Amino acid sequence: MSENQNPTKTTENLPSSTSSRVPGEIGNGGSSSSSSFSGKKVSYPNPPDPSNPDAATLREQWRFAIRQYSKWYSHAWGTAILAGVSFFALGWIIKGSNPLPSFKHHQDDPPPSSSSSSSAAADDATEAR
């Protein structure tokens, strides 16, 4: 039971041949014929091109990137416009009328008389002198 709880004892029970290998032998697959350690070759998932591609390939890649960007840009604008119209319609449904009125005319308020506005303008002119 104590052997399962202590994982260091299981690593100590390994054969001594694997622990006596030097890093050069491990990297070379255990063969001792090679005297120098060349290191492990690193393989990248997407390695760089060995040389620059020709102009036609670059032009094709550039056009593809522009098409992709244009498609994403137009989709974003379409989504934004659709969301705006949807929220406007939702506001109209909730309020029962235009949620963004341009003018606030109420039926209950009397329209302002022209005589009071002209006297207010005259009062402003006399105060400015």
Describe the structure.
The protein has 129 residues and is an all-alpha fold. The chain contains 6 helices and no strands. It is elongated and about 100 Å long. The mean pLDDT is 73. Keywords: Membrane, Transmembrane, Transmembrane helix. Residues 1-56, 99-129 are annotated as: Disordered. Residues 114-123 have a biased composition (Low complexity). Residues 1-21 have a biased composition (Polar residues). The chain crosses the membrane at residues 72-94.
Question: Quick gist of this model?
Answer:
The protein is 58% helix and 0% strand. With 129 residues, it is mainly α.
Number of helices: 6
Helix content: 55-70%
Between the first and last Cα atoms, what is the distance in angstroms?
104 Å
Strand content: under 5%
Strand tally, please? 0
The profile of the biggest β sheet is: none
Q: Structural class per helix/strand content?
A: mainly alpha
Low-confidence stretches: none
* Rg result: 41 Å
Region (Disordered): 1-56, 99-129
Keywords: Membrane, Transmembrane, Transmembrane helix
Biased composition (Polar residues): 1-21
Biased composition (Low complexity): 114-123
How are the SSEs ordered, and which strands pair?
Elements (H helix, E strand, L loop, with lengths): L1 H4 L1 H6 L3 H4 L3 H5 L27 H41 L18 H15 L1
Keywords: Membrane, Transmembrane, Transmembrane helix
